Each structure stands twice: as structure tokens, then as C-alpha cells.
């Protein structure tokens, strides 16, 4: 794993275990095997799997956590570029969604994938997690409007499910 990504994930665990879904004792990341590819997206993960590449669910989650942690750097760049809040929200949402779909395409256990999809269907009405509109509607129902509703999406895109992280040792 790139050292800065490893540092970011470990720092996230150490600084905010509740946010990262890990405890200080679990703030370790296994080295990514040199020969194991890191798919850039779900389609590449599916192609690699068809040629025999297999990842553990822990490796899929590790890649997901790295990509979610990287959103913070993107947000800082967007702020510096004065990207409007709505566009930041749409970009952050898409990065998070793409990370989710890539990780799920990497999962080795179909039953565990089905359980995550069922969880998302029950929670969001969609097996692939919340839609952008669902998040926006939820924020509006909380009384957020305009820029505040979009910035809440930017923030939520940088958080992961602590229970799922914990179940995989993060």
C-alpha cells in the first residue's frame, strides 16, 4: 500500500476510532500483497475476478476504507478551487459510491455481499446504498437547506459503517 494511504488510514483510526470504526488496538493495516491488483473500479474488479483474481472481504474493505479516507484530500482541493457546495457533494457522493461498488465487486463471499445489499435495501430502499437524492431528502428532513444540506453529504461521504468495519477487523 502507498505509505501515505496507510498513514491516512492508521491516522484516521487513531484520531477518530468511532468515525473510522476501529479501536486504537485495531489501527493496523495489513500490507497489500505485491502481486494482488487493486482494481480502479467495479468493472475492472469483475474482469479481474473472471481471470482468477480473488480478494478477501477484508482486502475489499481495506481498499474501500482507503478510498473513502482519500475523499478528505479531494474535498480540501475542491475548497481551494472554490467548487460550489452542491458540486462538492455530488463529487464526494460519487467517489464514495464508486468505492462501495468496487469493494462489493471484489467480495469473495456471495452470502456476505447479499447481506450487505439486503441491509442497504432495508435502510435506503436500494441494494447499492443511498442515492444522492435520498441523502439530500434526508438532510432536508433534518431541517438542513441549501449549502448546509450539500455540505452534510460531503461529510457523510467520508464516514463508513463502524459495524461493518469492526466485523472485518478494522
Number of helical stretches of at least 4 residues: 9
Number of strands: 0
Specify the structural class.
Answer: mainly alpha
Radius of gyration: 16 Å
User: Which percent bin holds the helix content?
Assistant: 55-70%
- Rounded mean pLDDT is 87
Strand fraction: under 5%
Q: Please outline the major beta sheet.
A: none
- Measure the end-to-end span: 16 Å
What is the approximate shape? globular
Q: Regions with pLDDT < 50 over 5+ consecutive residues?
A: 1-12, 14-27
String of helices and strands: HHHHHHHHH
Explain the layout of strands and helices.
Blueprint: H1 3-15, H2 17-20, H3 42-50, H4 57-80, H5 85-106, H6 110-124, H7 132-141, H8 146-156, H9 162-167
Structure characterization notes:
This protein has helices at 3-15, 17-20, 42-50, 57-80, 85-106, 110-124, 132-141, 146-156, 162-167. The chain is built from 9 helices and no strands. Residues 1-12 and 14-27 have low confidence and may be disordered. The longest helix is centred in the middle third of the chain and has 24 residues, at 57-80. The chain has 170 residues and is mostly helical.
Amino acid at each position: 500500500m502507498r505509505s501515505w494511504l496507510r498513514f491516512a488510514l492508521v491516522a484516521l483510526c487513531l484520531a477518530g476510532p468511532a468515525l473510522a470504526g476501529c479501536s486504537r488496538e485495531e489501527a493496523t493495516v495489513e500490507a497489500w500483497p505485491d502481486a494482488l491488483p487493486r482494481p480502479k473500479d467495479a468493472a475492472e474488479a469483475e474482469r479481474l475476478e473472471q481471470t482468477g483474481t480473488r480478494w478477501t472481504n477484508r482486502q475489499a474493505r481495506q481498499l474501500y476504507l482507503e478510498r473513502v479516507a482519500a475523499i478528505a484530500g479531494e474535498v480540501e482541493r475542491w475548497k481551494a478551487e472554490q467548487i460550489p457546495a452542491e458540486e462538492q457533494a455530488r463529487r464526494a457522493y460519487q467517489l464514495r459510491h464508486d468505492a462501495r461498488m468496487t469493494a462489493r465487486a471484489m467480495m469473495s463471499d456471495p452470502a456476505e455481499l447479499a447481506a450487505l445489499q439486503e441491509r442497504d435495501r432495508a435502510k435506503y430502499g436500494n441494494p447499492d446504498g443511498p442515492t444522492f437524492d435520498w441523502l439530500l431528502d434526508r438532510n432536508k428532513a433534518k431541517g438542513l437547506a441549501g449549502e448546509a444540506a450539500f455540505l452534510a453529504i460531503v461529510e457523510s461521504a467520508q464516514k463508513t459503517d463502524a459495524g461493518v468495519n469492526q466485523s472485518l477487523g478494522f
